[in-house]
Amino acid sequence: MSLVALDDVSKSVLLADDSRLEILRGVSLEVGAGDHVSIVGRSGSGKSTLLNILGMLDAPSSGSVSFEGREVRRMRSGRLDRLRGDNVGFVFQQFNLLAGRTAIDNVMMPLGHARGRMFWNRRRIAADMLERVGLGHRVDQIADKLSGGEQQRVAIARALVRRPVLILADEPTGALDIDTGASVMSLLDEVATETDAALVTITHDLHVAARARRHYRLDAGRLETADLSRAFEASTLAASVPSTPPRADA
Ligand SMILES: Nc1ncnc2c1ncn2[C@@H]1O[C@H](COP(=O)(O)OP(=O)(O)OP(=O)(O)O)[C@@H](O)[C@H]1O
Ligand SMILES: [Mg+2]
Question: The ABC transporter domain covers which part of the protein (predicted)?
Answer without folding.
Answer: 4-245
